[in-house]
Amino acid sequence: MNLFDPFTLPYMQRALLEVLVLGALAGAVGVLVVLRRLAFVGDALTHTVFPGIVIAHLLGRSVVAGALAFGVLTAVLLTVLGSHRRVGDDAALAILLTSFFSVGVVLISRTRGFTADLTVFLFGRVLAVDRADLAQTLAVAVVATLVLALLHKELVLRAFDPEAAAAMGYRTRALDLVLNLLIALVVVAAVEAVGTVLVIALIVVPAAAARLLTDRVAAMTAVACLLGAAGGWLGLAVSFEVSVDHDLRLAAGATIVVVLVGLFLVAAAVAPLRRRMAAR
Amino acid sequence: MEPDPVLVLRRATVAYEREPVVEGVDGEVSAGQSVALIGPNGAGKSTLIRAVLGLVPLTSGTIEVLGRPPQAARRQVAYVPQADTLDPEFPVSALQVVLMGRYPRVGWLRRPGGADRQAAQRALAEVGLAERASTRFGTLSGGQRQRVLLARAIAQEPRLLLLDEPFNGVDALSQDLLLAALGRLRAAGAAVVMATHDLGLAHLACDEVCLLNRHQIGFGPIGTTLTPELLRATYGGQALQLRGDGVIVARP
Predict the structure, then answer these.
(1) Mean pLDDT over each residue of chain A, to the nearest integer
(2) Structural domain boundaries of chain B?
């Protein structure tokens, strides 16, 4: 298999740049999601963004703008829900997730030939990413990176010890909103490439693998970014090779996720060895 | 002239959904003083601490920290939670936990600098853990973790220190080191308030006591306030009387 040849094609170059940026960004945000054990909240966000995409599509507006609007809306909703102990449980999240998602499906099922559109929004089409999509992803990545740089240590403190963070005067609910918005931004950035369903894998899997391999937040973040980007690259290369050489069409987005899970399994296999080395 | 007290409570009352959790707490704590909050589970000790931190609103009465409302004084206040409430799998070293105490002075965007690292190292040395700086927090023993959290509070250089059951599940060595570090903090002028249900340690660590069971039963010097009558009033049916004046508290 060749890891470089496919990327001489312009559309493959754009796809590669897209997944490298996305993988690194999702990895960095994913570290906070994993440390806060918010994978299910993240998953809810990926689904609640869906009706925004559909509405924007039906109105002929930018899909990313629609995703952003619903991403912000649900980030706020989830933060409010999360601060009420009685409501902020699994059931409330599941209701929110499924109701938003269903509204999206109902809306899109009114259009003709909707299954094609549905597939694109759910699973993305990374090979069709154009310059405008790439520019949007880059812009979102820059914003998210700035926010992370500005508030990273505060977000980590809040994840580790929310009571002490509040006692020090940090507004923990505002920090929760920031993290939910960051997740929403990653989902928005990933909509074109991998769709709303698979993006949670991009967020959670590299960070979970990195957690197995490191004992420090900084190292975990670096490893998660690298794994996310590497998974994107490998996934693209694999799906291209198999499609071209063996005439088996592999969906690029899903192949990336499968490769990421493969990397996670390798990390899980290596982790006990690392612990034994560290214990010596 | 008597210096202004660090903490002043006047008829302080906290209620959740109209149900009073802790009612009518009166008292003053001066620099260098240490007060034990004593009472059974559910007496409102943790709620009172949260009120002094400005994390729950008072329904009546006032709390002043250094002459200001609690929210305005947070930079001068440090809080030490129970170590076992924190995720032992979290990937941070002991030193990084202590450094968190410096975050409010570091500010956004910037990372803790050399001076902050030195302060954190000194604070770890204060609790006898200088050699464990790079050990992952979760792999330390319960007592060591509690000492790391006290070191984080020391690194904040507080004028008021609030502790929630700091001696729970703590080994004897850690207990001695915690007591010694608390003593040095008080000698340096910090006021200390700790929730505890260990009367023996309250005697060792504090000179004043606030007896609580949903309302204040007594507040004053430990020698004259920890009386059998007041302890019975605090613990109700859970207090057993032994010959004469002795009281032991069952299932505190």
Answers:
(1) 88
(2) 7-88+157-249
Quote the CA–CA distance of B217 and B231 in Å, as a whole number.
Answer: 9
Q: What's A158's domain CATH number?
A: 1.10.3470.10
Of B39, B53, B44, give the one whose Cα is nearest residue B13.
B44
| Higher-pLDDT residue of A263, B228 | A263
**What SS3 class is residue B190?**
coil
Judge whether residue A67 has pLDDT over 70. Answer: yes
Q: What is the pLDDT of residue A95?
A: 85
- Contact of B144 with chain A, judged by CB distance below 8 Å, is answered with no
Among A153-167, A246-260, B165-179, B186-200, name the one with the lowest average pLDDT: A246-260
- Domain B7-88+157-249 -> CATH class: alpha beta
Domain carrying residue A63: 5-270
| Residue A260 within any structural domain of the chain | yes
What is the reported pLDDT for A279? 63
In a domain, A257, yes or no: yes
d(CA B75, CA B68): 12
Measure A205 CA to nearest chain B CA, in Å.
Answer: 17
Q: Tell me which chain A residues have a C-beta less than 8 angstroms from the C-beta of B91.
A: 35, 211, 214-217, 219-220
- Residue A6's nearest CA partner among A262, A254, A252 is A252
A200 within a domain of the structure (yes/no): yes
CB contact under 8 A, A35 and B91: yes
- B100 and A157 Cβ atoms separated by less than 8 Å: yes
How far, in Å, CA of A111 to CA of A109, rounded?
A: 5
Q: Could you report the per-residue pLDDT of B70-126, keeping only the tens digit for each?
A: 999 999 999 999 999 999 999 999 999 999 999 999 987 788 999 999 999 999 999
Global ipTM: 0.89
Structure tokens at B250: 């069952």
Chain position carrying tokens 């570290």? A31
Domain presence at residue A31:
yes
Measured CA to CA, the distance from residue B51 to residue B71 in angstroms comes to 10
b/e code A14-45 from CB counts within 10 Å (16+ = b): bbbbbbbbbbbbbbbbbbbbbbbebbebbbbb
